[in-house]
Amino acid sequence: MAGLTRTAGAFAVTPHKISVCILLQLYAPSAQMSLPFPFSSISQHNRLGLYLLSLTKSCDDIFEPKLEDLINQLREVGEDMDAWLTDHLTNRFSSLTSPDDLLNFFNDMRGILGSLDSGAAQDDQIILDPNSNLGMFVRRCILAFNLLSFEGVCHLFTSIEVYCREAHSSSAQYDESNDNLESLIQHDQMDMEKYIMDKATEEIELQKNASGRVPFHLHTPEALFKVTEGLLVTRKEKSRTNTKKAEATQLACASSSTVDDTLVDESLFLRTNYQIQGFLMEQADAIETHGSSLSSSSIESFLQKLQNLAPELHRVHFLRYLNKLHSDDYFAALENLLRYFDYSAGTEGFDLVLPSTGCSMYGRYEIALLCLGMMHFRFGHPNLALEVLTEAVRVSQQHSNDTCLAYTLAAMSNLLSEMGIASTTSVLGSSYSPVTSTASLLSVQQRVYILLKESLRRADTLKLRRLVASNHLAMAKFELMHVQRPLLSFGPKASVRHKTCPVSVCKEIRLGAHLLSDFSAESSTMTIDGSLSSVWLKDLQKPWGQPVFSQESGSRKSSTFFQFCDHLVSIPGSVSQIIGASYLLRATSWELYGSAPMARINTLVYATLFGDSSSSSDAELAYLKLIQHLALYKGYKDAFAALKIAEEKFLTVSKSKILLLKLQLLHEHALHRGNLKLAQRMCNELGGLASTTMGVDMELKVEASLREARTLLAAKQYSQAANVAHSLFCTCHKFNLQIEKASVLLLLAEIHKKSGNAVLGLPYALASISFCQSFNLDLLKASATLTLAELWLGLGSNHAKRALDLLHGAFPMILGHGGLELRARAYVFEANCYLSDPSFSVSTDFDTVLDSLRQASEELQALEYHELAAEAFYLMAMVYDKVGQLEEREEAATLFKKHITALENPQDEEPKNMA
Amino acid sequence: MVSKESCRNEIRAAIRQLSDRCLYSAAKWAGEQLVGIEQDPSNFTPSNTRFQRGSSSIRRRFSTISTPQPSAGFSQPPATPLPQEEDEVIDGDLYLLAKSYFDCREYRRASHVLRDQMSNKSLFLRCYALYLAGEKRKEEEMIELEGPLGKSDAINRELVSLERELSALKRTGAIDSFGLYLYGVVLKEKGNETLARASLVESVNSYPWNWSAWSELQSLCTSIEILNSLNLNSHWMKEFFLGSAYQELRMHSESLAKYEYLQGIFSFSNYIQAQTAKAQYSLREFDQVEIMFEDLLRNDPYRVEDMDLYSNVLYAKEACAALSYLAHKVFLTDKYRPESCCIVGNYYSLKGQHEKAVMYFRRALKLNKKYLSAWTLMGHEYVEMKNTSAAVDAYRRAVDVNPCDYRAWYGLGQAYEMMGMPFYALHYFRKSIFFLPNDSRLWIAMAKCYQSEQLHMLEEAIKCYKRAVNCGDTEGIALNQLAKLHQKLGRNEEAAFYFEKDLERMDAEGLEGPNMFEALVFLATHLKTNKKFDEAEVYCTRLLDYSGPEKEKAKSLLRGIRMAQTDFPSMDMEHFPL
Q1: Digit-coded pLDDT (tens) for A615-645
Q2: What's residue A452's pLDDT?
Q3: Is residue B24 in some structural domain?
Q4: What tens digit of pLDDT does each residue of B68-97 get?
Q5: Which of A273, A312, A365 sits opposite B421 (nearest CB)?
Q6: Chain-wide mean pLDDT for chain A?
Q7: Could you say which of B112, B149, B424 has the minimum Cβ distance to residue A391?
Q8: Which of A592, A709, B264, B381 could form a disulfide with A725 if both were Cys (CB 3.0 to 4.6 A apart)?
């Protein structure tokens, strides 16, 4: 593939290549010796050979090392003869005093090549096989040089000067050769004038570097360093700091030389289009992975420079769009997106992704629409986005771009399911697309379902594996959240299976994860020259690097399978992202179904295996889940500690959910400790995070009002709480948020229970249970059952038996998967039941009661749930009193008092955890 | 009031000084203005009159309307004194040699000759020659280095040393106004716009006659705020500057006022006339512009500058013969000017030979990559050739050269609309309207977009048409469309209102046609259903004047009206079961 895409003119002679040639001359001098002069052993000779091999391999890389870096590397490779090597190199350079010397140099280079029919080579002669890698390199260099016009030779000559000058301007060690060069120059009377002027400019440049007025060596590389380093860090283990640093600096220096256009512009030799595309692709990945934690301005300045260098490279605009998108700059993002598609008609860069559709003469404006739609979606303009995507559907049908159509439909379904557009104004109806026009009559869910099915079908026939996988995931999500209903529910045969089906969710998730095995078939079309060759360099440096950096050879062995994939098979980030997403979805589904351990395991799998390649928002989600888990099962202390770590990591991510989580945790904590004022404040802040637009941020809005109702409930303002909950239920119904409905119903039952209106609460609890059943929300069902049991008990102590039976039915689920609070509540309630059961005698069976109370009190203390803890200790004290264990009774009583006082003065210990 | 005589003296001295320093284009400009001043009747010589515009000039007809009485303005502070030439003798010989090298375009040689000369004049010439040498080398390198990605990062490599030297001179205060001008140019090239502006302001304040400095300064004034923040001494040159700056900032009437004012002194200046024509062109006064250009060409037949504008006017008036004549003439004068290529392109475009037109626009762009109108015109050609993506590309380049070019934004919108992406196109129309909110054509284009089958956003379309009407829709599309849209939406009252207005307009312009019938029929029917029989009858009788099906319709309507009027109660009779 590489041979096909690269044009002949793309291989340009650069000073760096000349250095490699010089070294090659040393490696294989034309003199007939088995071991050339400076080498003391065969292994030393071979090491240089390996090094040269890696250098020639990396010649297609976007950055070329500077002379200084090359010399540093040589020092490590050459061991005791490094001085000789570098001396030779610099001397050879300084002997190039006129263009004619260059001509002679390349003539000499011919000598080290063997003849093409080199069958008759003598044994002790080192001759480069012209067909070997090194031989090919030399031949390419010679060819490229011969193709140069005289102007080209002159440019090469001047760039060699800059290349050398940089090296000794930055390291004093080479002053000697510097003088050498200059003395040689001074002899050359013909060009005296020119060199004086050159010297003057050189001085100016030096002065500038020193004074830092043009921040060349000091600042720019630093910014770039961060970028490149960031690129590397994600893909490598932390333990490999040594090489990582070395490589990063190398890249950074090289990039600074590439990018800085004021000083070393002549040493710039732009790589092939494909290399730059590949490089930009990597950058785009980096932007996505790091979100806005990458400084947007440093990328911006980098792009600006790249654009100056290659004005016809329009993909820069796209990258700038991505960058602006991630730094939430709507206008700039829009502007750059439009500019990109105006210039390239969508044909530049995307051809790597969509090989199937040939280049149509109309350009690929449907992709522009798709991108625009997704951009509007991201910035929270669902109606605009829908309008644009509808147009995208139309245009891609018009141009019969099925690939784009499949993607658009997927994006549309995603939009609809995320935004929950309430009003059934037939936005889609205005389109004449057969898919959407039938859909206009249907509810949003059904539309989402149809769109997904349609997209999946198309993606399947077009073999777009990534899209198939992500559609499967979306489907799984859909099935998880929505009750299966026949689309047209009339007629006698309409099946009425009003349930979500965990089997099908699981099936979809598995289908989504199949992507990895499918991938090998597609990989050949995906590899990008540029990124691949830079991977080449990194990999090739390992074999010779290992003996040099021996101290870290042990740690590298721990590299995981996925890292291995990353480098050699080079699974693109997008694939591992989708697979990672499948794990996250698994975790979420288990969370809903109510299996805490499974949810936790899946999240952990995600965080450990995919954390590096995932986008920052996904990684953040994983952390969020883990922290929530901690809060539920380990208490707040641990959760807040973990939150602190996550905050440092993710706070820069735009639309960070960390803040949300923090508010949630603080609210929960405040409620438990009875600090209602704080709870109310947190609740309000939570509501403030949501956008004011209708239908946007629904999840957040529901969450906020749910919490508001709970706060009101805790403040014993029952009617207000009930009002809020009622209106919340209406909203949920309107936006079809079924799962939330179940929890709202449960909340209503709770409110009635607390207000002492058990009879009113019963239907709510029952409704909630039936909702939970149809969505397979086992844990929520268990907690609804608990509430139901509590309600029964509230009806009178003669129902204690029934309540106890209900509770015992739910116990396995509660104890196996429930959080601290739920378990404690169950225990306390159990004790309550026993105590109020007239047929239960405390004096004989007091251990059963005390056992559960003790359990409850431990868990409640971890939660700092003062109210319930006080109740538990109160009951304990009563039981001890009955049994006559006075000492224990006193102990329980003091603890009871402690909790009661803490509940009454919540402000005492408040700001401990507030960051 | 500055007397013409003092102006003349100032300019005469300035031309000498400018050409001494090899600032030829500034000297040229000054020369044009010098001849533009009305001749002193006292030293009238027959040879002079030849260059003066004769009284037969057609321009007079227009200029009489606008010539102001400039007695009021021009409260001139003591005029900036002309600097005296100091060092004529000292470095005279070397300077003369250097200048002749310079004139032969051997810039490096010129600067080398002056390497040890310390006088201001030599210093400037040395730096200026060095700068030009760098520019020349840059251009060459641009061609040498051009790669597949359009890389053109060649830079003037003298800039660094020049900036260093000039800033040092500035710090010691040993820099004259010409040096400041060069310093400003260097700074601008290096991207330091604020400093460049400051330096140029200083230069023009101390030596206002250097038009090159003014125009550099003008190119740095990208917004009215910047322009107003400049601290400029008042001088008549400032008026020229303001005129051209206003024009760039699309404040055409302000710019016209400035030029009218200047015409009081420089009543025969070609420059002012061309600039006035430019402003008028932007105000779409094509007839007037054509006359002005004809006049201009008569006096200055070998002029190429601004002639592309003239060709645009001829294009708009579809004057094929005149356009071909102009193209021929300009081509004979200098075929390697972007303007000439653009004119030929316009000619071929008018003839419908779009491929050839594109070729010539391309040539113009090869000569000047930032030639805005060629990009836009090329976009138009591609649209004609139905090569929309190429059109989009060309328009986008125009927009990137100058983001205020409403034509290119409009073109982009049009191209996308052609591709069936009306929603996407809307953004571009909005952009174009932002820069020219008072053009009804843009509003109508946007309304059509909303009205399109795919979007069908009629309410928005109505809003746009309303704006178009408010902007004085010349083509009369908006009223008719408004009426029809309202009719479609079942708002008969509004529809009747707009039909009536449209009818008034057509009456005023003496137009007839299907739109008229439609309006009449609708109004008659509408008024009849509203029981305003008298008015309905008026419209019906108007319809009777025309033949065709409308006449029959009118007759039946009239019959209905009569019936309704004569036996009113019978209306309800139908409803009774008989």
Answers
A1: 777 778 888 888 888 888 888 888 888 888 8
A2: 81
A3: yes
A4: 444 433 444 445 555 555 555 555 788 889
A5: A365
A6: 69
A7: B424
A8: A709
Query: Could you tell me which residues come within 8 angstroms of residue B109 by beta carbon, excluding any fewer than 6 positions away?
Result: B101
Interatomic CA distance for residues A187 and A171, integer angstroms: 25
Cβ–Cβ below 8 Å for A201 and B160:
yes
Give me the residue from A201, A268, A394 closest to B454, CB to CB: A394
The residue in chain A having the minimum alpha-carbon distance to the alpha carbon of residue B109 is A193
User: Looking at this protein, which amino acid is placed at residue A296?
Assistant: S
Distance from CA of A311 to the nearest CA of B (A): 6
CA A287 to chain B, closest CA, distance in angstroms equals 24
- Alpha helices (runs of H) in A864-911, residue ranges in sequence order: 866-883, 886-904
The pLDDT, as a whole number, for residue B274 is 92
Given a cut of 90, whether residue B185 has pLDDT beyond it is yes
Angle at CA A571, nearest 5°, toward A566 and A575?
125
Q: What are the b/e assignments for B374-407, b being 16+ CB within 10 Å?
A: bbbbbbbbbbeeebbbbbbbbbbbbbbbeebbbb
Is B421 within 8 Å of A309 when comparing Cβ atoms? no
Instruction: Select from A152, A201, A394 the Cβ nearest to the Cβ of B420.
Output: A394
| CB spacing of B160 vs A9 below 8 angstroms | no
Cβ separation of B157 and A313 shorter than 8 Å?
no
Contact residues on chain A for B150, CB-CB shorter than 8 A: 310-313
Residue of A732, A770, A764, A771 lying closest to A750 (CA atoms): A764
Q: What b/e string do you get for A840-871 counting C-beta neighbours within 10 Å, with b at 16 or more?
A: bebeeebeebbebbebbbebbbbbbbbbbbbb
Residue B502 near residue B476, CB atoms below 8 Å: yes
The CATH number of whichever domain residue B30 belongs to comes to 1.25.40.10
Alpha-carbon distance of B144 to B152, in angstroms, equals 9
Q: What is the pTM of this model?
A: 0.68
Is B95 or A345 the better-scoring residue by pLDDT? Answer: B95
State ipTM: 0.72
- List the single residue in A200, A273, A372 with the smallest CB-CB distance to B149: A273
Helical residues (DSSP H) of A715-841, grouped into ranges: 718-734, 738-754, 758-775, 778-794, 800-817, 820-836
> Does residue B412 belong to any structural domain of this protein?
no
Interface test with B, best of A206, A258, A335, A338 (most B CBs within 10 A): A338
For chain B, what is the domain count? 1
CB contact under 8 A, B392 and A205: no
Q: What is the pLDDT of residues A381-419, one digit of tens each?
A: 877 888 888 888 888 888 777 888 888 888 888 887 776
Confidence of residue A258 (pLDDT cuts 50, 70, 90): very low
Q: B255 in a domain, yes or no? A: no
Q: How far is A202 from chain B (nearest CA, A)?
A: 10
Name the nearest CA neighbour of A366 among A334, A319, A405. Answer: A405
Q: A368: buried, middle or exposed (CB in 10 Å: 19+, 13-18, 0-12)? A: buried
Flag if A391 and B161 touch (Cβ within 8 Å).
Answer: no
B310 occurs within a structural domain:
no
* Min Cα–Cα distance to chain A from B152, Å: 7
Quick check: A911 pLDDT over 70? Answer: no
Q: Report which of A383, A381, A380, A349 is spatially closest to residue A367, judged by C-alpha positions.
A: A349
Q: pLDDT tens digits, residue range A133-162?
A: 888 888 888 888 888 888 888 888 888 888
Task: Dump pLDDT digits (tens) for A199-236.
Answer: 444 444 443 333 333 332 323 333 333 333 333 333 33
Q: Distance between CA A686 and CA A708 in Å, rounded?
A: 10
> Which one of B112, B153, B428 has the shortest CB-CB distance to A309?
B153
Lowest mean pLDDT among A175-189, B234-248, B288-302: A175-189
How distant is the Cα of B150 from the closest Cα of chain A, in angstroms?
5
Containing structural domain, residue B171: 1-36+88-143+156-220
